[in-house]
Design goal:
The complex is a heterodimer of chains A (619) and B (151).
Chain A (H helix, E strand, L loop, with lengths): L4 E12 L3 H13 L5 E5 L13 E4 L12 H11 L6 H21 L19 E5 L2 H13 L4 E3 L1 E9 L2 E12 L4 E12 L29 H6 L6 E2 L8 E3 L7 H5 L5 E2 L6 H4 L18 H13 L5 E3 L1 H9 L3 H16 L3 H9 L9 E5 L13 E2 L25 E3 L11 H22 L8 H21 L15 H15 L8 E2 L1 H17 L8 H26 L10 E2 L7 H4 L2 E7 L4 E7 L7
Parallel strand pairs in A: 1-2, 1-8, 2-5, 8-15, 16-17
Antiparallel strand pairs in A: 3-4, 6-7, 7-8, 9-14, 9-18, 10-13, 11-12, 12-13, 18-19
Helix pairs in contact in A: 1-4, 1-12, 2-3, 3-12, 9-10, 13-16, 14-15, 14-16, 15-16
Chain B lengths: L2 E3 L15 H5 L5 E4 L4 E4 L10 H5 L5 E3 L11 E7 L2 E7 L5 E7 L30 H4 L13
Antiparallel strand pairs in B: 1-4, 2-3, 5-6, 6-7
Classes of the chains: A alpha/beta (619), B mainly beta (151).
Bound molecules: flavin-adenine dinucleotide (FAD) and iron/sulfur cluster (2 copies).
Chain lengths: 619, 151
């Protein structure tokens, strides 16, 4: 098959991904850099793309500084405890001090936020405010689209690789990818790049099988691109061993936050016991975090995990008790509670509403099963995997500061949202905010570094061939077998994904291995994933849709490999309930209250792992 | 929970300038036109996240969702209808019970946002500072917090 045509787009700032953080980045950069050319490249369409595309029922990161609810310092205290001692305080503070302005702007643009009678925002928990959020993403995308101009938004283009400067591999120069809807290779040449292409679902084998594998908790569109793009060019990553194992309503993956915090429901095992009561003493093993208020999410998971492991399931969320208590026997009040209960899912996780309806579950009458899900690797929600970035000038100690806020260790490459590590609990509003922070800083970078970047024709040619290789491989070898799917020369993208998921599930502590790993298991997993990485160069794609899938699995595999290597490096069990190292079962604050960082060197095909000190800024 | 299309009502979005709207919007590149029938079609149902973006946008109300076969018993349905500034949902249980809910989703007309309205930050002078665009108006407190002396 002839190689597709190559088209080049030049810009000052390139935003990769038009999710929450990408829209924030686009919006902010055109304010400060009115005269600069800002381009967004997105694999889908920004109105509904990314983890927020389906909608959300709450803004989970809001300080309420104007009401005196919280200060950014309070936020740092909370986040550090919830992460069991490990988060970059400068980065968390930075999001906290700015996030309210983003939320107020979203409201101004049309996001309906629930209000109390006195006009204040309603609250779910300390940081969460309920919204009618079905259209959160289109409301966010609209001003971003207006700000950069529709001619600068390149949709249905999947980025496969970042490009570094031909004369300086430590400086970013752009990105390359292909048209999902037309046979074209796209080269984006840019002085600064902001990577906002989201976290990773489906790296681990999900609990669902067959049709249900698209019903992951974190968005199935989140393919680990932020990591899969940054790692191969040598960007320093941090906390890639971290994962989030969400407690979710079983199979439909409905979130539980609203149920715990707003409806005040609790979970019981089959014997009617509440694990937060019966397993209370378990928390003492993990001081000082065990006695933190609220109990850190992993420790709550850990308590539930012990019940499940001991065969005390199914675990039930007592939605019935909670709703009846709130309604207090008043049918009118029950109508309101019912309406709120269903909205939580209809705005955000519609599959859960379908699961209830199909199983005849009316939550006011029938409790509903919850379960611990498979692990997810991400940096914006309750996860903290991502790039090691510079903090802001006024907050960060020298170890955490190298000139431009949110710049990675590659000059001119900025990250935001799921792409930034050690800065969790940003959620939708904080990701949007972090995109804005990265963008303002990228404008400064471009002002300070106006010189053109250099791309090499040879590099573009090699990468173009590599991008298109799965299509060529399929064409070349399809005649060798009577079946498209069983061929000795290639594997299909789906087969590659299943292989990755099996490795991660069995060797990196997925659900079938009870989230448990040890050194030898991880080493075996690394050996297998290295072979998978080689085999990914031998994928066969029948069409562009499969070509998209073949690059998604490449990005997911980089994510998985980094996860395995980081898990091996951290010799302790920092987050019981997310994972357990059977050879280092204890939390070890003396030696391991440090960040684990890695870099990959493409010329030697080697990874190096280091640790970085924990610097107290607020706590 | 994969989508399926009613062949009787799908008209391949005749007259829509973006082309078939389900194909335009699907965040996971799943909806496509079936080349033989020229109708909307989900080409990879097992990677459908039931985000309903296509369902909500279909001008013919031709797209439905049949719960994932591996855990959703047959017979239920959850279907939205867009109304001015919101959506009305009809939830049908397997046992025939039916619920209806209407929720707002947007408080301003589509297209009405004005990105930098009344922003006063100086684009040159304030570039070096920590404030973001529009924060003097939208942050909600007078001074952006910082932690002087903690470095
Ligand atoms: C089910 C669920 C419930 C949640 N609940 C809440 C909640 O109640 N409150 C809350 O505040 N937050 C919630 N969140 C979290 C919130 O959605 C995320 O934190 C936020 O969207 C992360 O922003 P991001 O910009 O990093 O990634 P995303 O918003 O996912 O954006 C990534 C973008 O990059 C694009 N992209 C990916 N790869 C490529 C590529 N190779 N080339 C080009 N483009 C690419 C994607 O299409 C997407 O548009 C929830 C998320 C989920 C999934
Ligand atoms: S949006 Fe509806 S009418 Fe248009 S092609 Fe898709 S299914 Fe058919
Ligand atoms: S429900 Fe969402 S993922 Fe599924 S086909 Fe429609 S738009 Fe695509």
């Amino acid at each position: 098959m002839a190689l597709p045509t190559i088209e080049t787009v030049e810009s000052d700032i390139l935003v990769i991904g038009g999710g929450m953080s990408g829209c924030g980045a686009a919006f902010e950069s055109k304010y400060w850099g009115e005269d600069l050319k800002v381009v967004i490249v997105e694999k889908a369409v920004i109105e509904r793309s990314g983890a927020t595309g389906e909608g959300l029922s709450a803004i989970n990161c809001y300080m309420g500084q104007r009401y005196g609810w919280n200060t950014p310092e309070d936020f740092v205290q909370y986040v550090v405890n919830d992460m069991m001692g490990l988060a970059r305080e400068d980065l968390v503070y930075d999001v906290g001090r700015h996030v309210d302005s983003s939320v107020h702007l979203l409201e101004e643009w049309g996001l309906p936020i629930w209000k109390k009678d006195n006009g204040e925002y309603e609250r779910i928990g300390r940081w969460q405010i309920p919204i009618h959020g079905e259209s959160l993403k289109p409301v966010t995308a609209e001003p971003a689209r207006k700000a950069v101009g529709k001619e600068n938004i390149y949709e249905r283009i999947a980025i496969t690789h970042l490009l570094t400067d031909a004369k300086d591999p430590g400086r970013i120069a752009g990105a390359i990818g292909f048209g999902v809807r037309e046979n074209k290779i796209w080269v984006f040449k840019s002085k600064a790049v902001i990577i906002t292409s989201g976290g990773a679902s489906n790296v681990f084998r999900p609990r669902s099988v067959n049709e249900g594998i698209g019903r992951t908790w974190y968005s199935v569109f989140a393919t680990g691109s932020a990591y899969g793009l940054m790692i191969p060019i040598g960007t320093e990553m941090t906390q890639m061993e971290h994962r989030f194992v969400p407690t979710r309503f079983k199979d439909g993956y409905g979130p539980v936050g609203m149920w715990f915090q707003y409806f005040h429901a609790h979970v019981e095992n089959a014997l009617g016991e509440d694990y937060t009561v019966t397993r209370d003493s378990e928390l003492k093993k993990y001081e000082p975090y065990g006695s933190a208020v609220p109990t850190p999410t992993p420790l709550r998971n850990h308590q539930m995990f012990l019940d499940i492991r001991d065969g005390k399931g199914p675990m039930y969320m007592r939605t019935d008790l909670a709703m009846q208590e709130l309604a207090g026997g008043d049918p009118k009040k029950m109508d309101k509670v019912r309406e709120e209960a269903w909205e939580d899912f209809l705005d955000m996780t519609i599959a859960q509403a379908m699961t209830w309806a199909s199983q005849n579950i009316a939550p006011e009458d029938t409790p509903s099963e919850v379960v611990l899900a498979e692990p997810y690797i991400m940096g914006s929600h309750s996860g903290e995997a991502g790039a090691w970035v510079s903090g802001p000038e006024d907050l960060s100690p020298p170890e955490y500061f190298w000139g431009y806020n949110k710049m990675t260790t590659i000059r001119g490459l900025f990250a935001a949202g799921d792409g930034v590590g050690a800065a969790p609990h940003k959620f939708s509003s904080g990701s949007f905010t972090e995109g804005r922070l990265a963008a303002k800083s990228a404008v400064r970078f471009v002002r300070d570094n106006p010189e053109q970047v250099n791309l090499s024709d040879a590099q573009i040619k090699d990468l173009s061939n590599a991008i298109w290789a799965p299509m060529d491989t399929f064409e070349k070898y399809k005649g060798v077998s009577t079946s498209d799917d069983v061929n000795p020369h290639y594997i299909t993208p789906k087969q590659a994904l299943v292989r990755l998921q099996k490795i991660m599930d069995e060797y990196a502590g997925g659900t079938s291995s009870w989230y448990t790993v040890n050194g030898p298991t991880l080493e075996r997993g690394i050996a297998l994933i290295e072979m998978l990485r080689e085999d990914l160069a031998h994928q066969g794609a029948k069409n562009r849709h499969e070509l998209l899938r073949s690059w998604e699995v490449v990005h997911r595999t980089w994510t998985g490999e980094a996860h395995l290597r980081h898990l091996l490096h951290r010799k302790e069990t920092r987050w019981p309930g997310y994972y357990y190292r059977s050879d280092y079962p204890d939390l070890d604050d003396n030696n391991w209250r440090v960040f684990v960082n890695s870099t990959f060197d493409s010329s030697s095909n080697k990874w190096s792992l280091t640790t970085k000190p924990y610097k107290h800024i607020v706590t | 929970m994969p989508t399926y299309v009613n062949p009787q009502t799908c008209n391949a979005c005749a007259g829509e300038h973006e082309g078939p709207l389900c194909v335009y919007i699907c965040p996971n590149d799943l909806m496509t036109l079936d080349t033989e029938q020229n109708k909307g079609f989900n080409q990879e149902p097992e990677l459908c996240s039931e985000c309903y973006a296509c369902v909500k946008l279909c001008p013919q109300d031709a797209i439905f969702v049949r719960g994932y076969s591996d855990f959703v018993p047959l017979g239920a349905s959850v279907q939205p209808k867009r109304i001015d500034g919101g959506l009305t949902w009809t939830v049908k249980f397997r046992d025939g019970r039916e619920l209806q809910f209407t929720y707002p989703s947007r408080s301003t007309p589509v297209g009405s946002s004005d990105p930098y309205k009344d922003f006063t930050e100086d684009k040159e002078k304030d570039l070096a500072g920590q404030g973001l665009a529009g924060e003097s108006k939208w942050l909600g407190v007078d001074v952006l917090p910082t932690l002087q002396g903690n470095k």
